[in-house]
Design brief:
By secondary structure, this protein is an alpha+beta fold. Helix content is 15%, strand content 35%. The chain has two domains: 32-216, Cathepsin D, subunit A, domain 1 (Beta Barrel), CATH 2.40.70; 226-402, Acid Proteases (Cathepsin D, subunit A, domain 1, Beta Barrel). Keywords: Secreted, Signal.
């Protein structure tokens, strides 16, 4: 089975290279591609845009670290393109994406409605809803880190229906899936342009200053990153999936939690591991606003934080939903939180800017939320906790590079984006 999957991947890679790279409109092969990311003030979603189609049209997308691939609402967006190519049933890409069936169209052919094309599920991970859509190819352009425009023909995506965009920010017509699926956006760019199968994300907390996504090689900043393995979850975490599919989300191995260097006791460490049938473990999300923890982990963690905060003179006050532990303070000078990874010497440090939420009236709350007694994943590291952190996802090497807060290095994601020619 593994040999067959490898053969499929190599075949798929050769198809993409032969149909894409040979036609790429760029004077030299780019080393890094970049996309701007801006936080939406109303929904707190992280948004970006690409140019797609012929003639090119801007497409506004919600960024999802764990979605399988790019999907776009073709039904309501007036999708017009002379380079649109629906994927025929039985084609290598349909096999590769594990198509759910063949489509039949009862109206005149158009993007999203063609006969004998493969249907693929497009998931809105914010509302946990989705719909079947037509798998297809079209032209996409992005900027390189040198400022040049790179045209990549034949990027695969799902051409979905209008109802799937409900719950997304205003003007958004789809989702940019950055998951480690074999047809995920990072993998397609890497195969098409022959650079490393890796990308990096740096989210700005500001609704006025861009963050950035890098595809390909760095370096992104001068500071060195720490590294930890990316773990495989043998069971898909998507809303709908085919039996036997592995999760395309990014899991890491949190072994313990320290607060100001002191271990949080009474954590059921079994919950920190991914079970043989899936479940448990720790993943990183741009969809969850705040980090969620299974109830027993959350209670142990919160009680330890409250105790340590008391030793440095921070006064607890009434809870403010959805947060449990809130404090009266004019500053966010609070205990550091360390997610201990493969050893005590490798840890992701969460400082006050990423741990405390200003809810007004000189009250700051610990920005972690009770995830319930039986969540699918024990700890989900939310977007608030990764703002102004640089995260590098190396899919080939299966490892995560992380900076901890860039504020500790006298910089931030807005500055990183500003110097990256986006």
């Amino acid at each position: 089975m593994a040999s067959y999957s490898l053969q499929l991947f190599l075949l798929f890679a050769l198809i993409l290279i032969s149909t894409t790279f040979s036609n790429a409109q760029t004077s030299s092969r780019p080393r890094t591609l970049v996309l701007p990311v801006l936080k939406d003030g109303r929904t707190q979603q992280y948004l970006t845009h690409i140019n797609q189609r012929t003639p090119l049209a801007p497409v506004k997308l919600s960024v999802d670290l764990g979605n399988r691939f790019l999907w776009i609402n073709c039904e309501d967006s007036g999708y017009v393109s002379s380079t649109y190519q629906p994927s025929q049933c039985g084609s290598p890409e349909c096999v590769f994406v594990r198509s759910s069936g063949c489509s039949t169209c009862y109206s005149s052919p158009k993007p999203g409605c063609n006969n004998n094309t493969c249907s693929v599920y497009a998931e809105n991970t914010i509302t946990r809803t989705g719909t079947g859509g037509e798998f297809a190819r079209d032209v996409v352009t992005l900027k390189s880190s040198s400022g040049s425009v790179v045209t990549v023909p034949n990027i695969l995506f799902t051409c979905g229906a209008k109802n799937v965009v409900k719950g997304l920010a205003s003007g958004v017509t789809g989702m940019l899936g950055l998951g480690k699926d074999r047809v995920g956006f990072p993998t397609q760019l890497a195969v098409s342009l022959r650079f490393d199968r890796k990308f990096a994300v740096c989210l700005s907390p500001s609704t006025k200053s861009n963050g950035i996504i890098f595809f390909g090689n760095g370096p992104y900043i001068s500071q060195k990153l720490a590294y930890t393995p990316l773990l495989d979850n043998p069971v898909s975490t998507a809303a709908i999936f085919v039996r036997g599919e592995h999760s395309v989300e990014y899991f890491i191995g949190v072994k313990a939690i320290n607060i100001n260097g002191k271990p949080v006791l009474s954590i059921n460490t079994t919950l920190l591991s991914i079970g043989k049938r899936g479940g448990g473990g720790t993943k990183i999300s741009t969809i969850n606003r705040y980090t969620t923890m299974e109830t027993s982990i959350f209670n142990a963690f919160t009680n330890a934080f409250i105790k340590e905060a008391g030793t440095i003179g921070i006064t607890r006050t009434a809870s403010v939903a959805p947060f449990s532990a809130c404090f009266t303070s004019k500053t966010i000078n609070v205990p550091n939180i360390d997610l201990v990874l493969q050893s005590q010497s490798v840890y992701w440090r969460i400082v006050g800017r990423n741990s405390m939420v200003d809810v007004g009236n000189n009250v700051h709350c610990l920005g972690f939320v009770d995830g319930g007694l039986n969540p699918e994943t024990s700890i989900v590291i939310g977007a608030y906790q990764i703002e102004d952190n640089l995260l590098e996802f190396d899919i080939t090497a299966s490892k995560l590079g992380f900076s901890s807060s860039l504020l500790l290095h006298k910089t931030n994601c807005a500055k990183v984006a500003l110097t990256s020619k986006i």
